[in-house]
Amino acid sequence: MSETEHEPDVTVDSRGATCPGPLMDLIGKVKESDPGTVIELQTSDNGSKSDVPEWLDEAGHDLLEVVDHDDYWSMYVEIN
Amino acid sequence: MTEHIVVVGGGTGGTVLANRLAEKLGPEIERGDARVTLVSDDPDHVYKPTFLYVPFGKKTVEDAKRPLADLVDHAVDVEIDRVTGVDTDGKRLSLRDSGSTGYDQLALALGAQLVPEELPGLAEGGHHFYGPDGAQELRETMAEFTEGHLVLSVIGTPHMCPAAPVEFVLMADAWFRQRGVREDVEITYTYPIQRAHAIQNVADWASEAFEERDIDVETFFNADEVDPEAGVLHSMEGAELDYDLLVGIPPHEGSDLVTEAGLGDDGWADVDKHTLESDHAEDVYVLGDLADVPTSKAGSVAHYEAGAVADRIASRTRGETPTATYDGKTVCFIESGMDEATFVDFEYGTQPTVREPSKPVHWAKLGYNESYWLTARGLL
Question: Which GO MF terms does the UniProt record name (chain B) (predicted)?
Fold first, then answer.
């Protein structure tokens, strides 16, 4: 799957960063964004697939979709 | 024609680099084929790891600094001035006091800056030990603190010296025990992600040490407001922590010069992690805390990076092809109390092993802190 219906308001490119870089980049962006914002987190770190959903659950935001692009993933997040 | 090499920043990265260049390019400087200028807006060199010991009365803020002029090789021109602009196309730097200067090769080592004001209430309600004033104020507060809840919150990420928050709470635990008040002091450590430290093995080791010493840990805790009146720390995740003494690792930022010069879009400079060459400009290197590389913002990183950058600049000055690279080598001592320590060392992509803490490693850390001044001179 490489197509998505989600239109991000903002994209965070964390490709190449290792854990916990992508999660910290996402947290930083969430901190400065308003509720309803859709963020696309681009990550090539396998650990993001577990630590990002875990944090979203803790912080009460939604993971809309994860799209596999072969060499990285796009994780679509909506801020509540 | 004289090759003009300008190093900006008088911290570990800039000072070690300038001294290494003086050594490697000695004959070229002697002949007038090369010139090395170190520009810093502070006439003193500051060794920041000293500040960790100040709150416990083991060092003073004065111990952390020495005049830059005493540490830098006489073959280097030291300019006390502030760089206010970088033109990488024209290869010129604007200077606050003395106009401008051209360069053939440029190395930026401006460090990271503390911005506690980024978190509402932190400057008023929190303490820190990441700078001289903060460390001195915390020393006085700690001296009076005999009961209540001490909360150490890692707020800023990335931040300098990633081991220091872990060290601080382990040292505080031992210090309060020595003072006979530990039973009346509750200690809590908070961290932004799902474990106690970014590095998994350090997190595992620290979690075990915290449990043994009755230090509470709150993970997934991203502070978003301090209420100094009520003594409450709020997190993005909706948690609240009451505190009597808050030690907050402040948010950090890179440099506006980086953003304005197009060397990175968020204040941290985009570089090749092995060569430290800018992704966006020719003949520009960035090292130390300012460079966005996937390892710690630590003095050892700046030190080892400076070795590789000096070698590359020297090669290029001689018309050779540079071959030296930085492999991510990072060494951090970690105090685990007031008289024991361990250390970790790792490179890009590797996990450090945390060894059993011991007294000799603690003595080695204290000894290294003294011999650091030889590192700054480029000798160690």
Answer: oxidoreductase activity
Tell me which CATH homologous superfamily contains domain B115-252.
FAD/NAD(P)-binding domain (3.50.50.60)
Q: Residue A1 — pLDDT band, cuts 50, 70, 90?
A: very low
Cα of A16 to nearest chain B Cα, Å:
9
- A13 labelled catalytic: no
DSSP state of B170: H
- In this complex, the residue of B192, B294, B349 whose CB is nearest that of residue A27 is B192
Q: Could you read off the pLDDT of A44-73 as tens digits, one per residue?
A: 998 999 999 999 999 999 999 999 999 999
What is the pLDDT confidence band of residue A3, given thresholds at 50, 70 and 90? low
The complex's ipTM? 0.89
Find chain B residues with C-beta within 8 A of A31's C-beta: 222, 224, 236
Enumerate the residues of chain B whose CB falls inside 8 A of the CB of residue A48.
Answer: none
User: Does the predicted model carry a pTM greater than 0.90?
Assistant: yes
How many CB pairs below 8 Å do chains A and B form together? 38
CA–CA gap between residue B293 and residue B206 (Å, rounded): 24
Long-range contacts (CB closer than 8 Å, 24 or more residues apart) made by B132-135? B132/B46, B132/B51, B132/B61, B132/B64, B134/B51, B135/B51, B135/B54, B135/B55, B135/B61
CA torsion angle B360 B361 B364 B365 (round to 10) = -140
CATH class of the structural domain B3-112+254-328? alpha beta
Mean pLDDT within B81-92: 98
pLDDT above 90: residue B150: yes
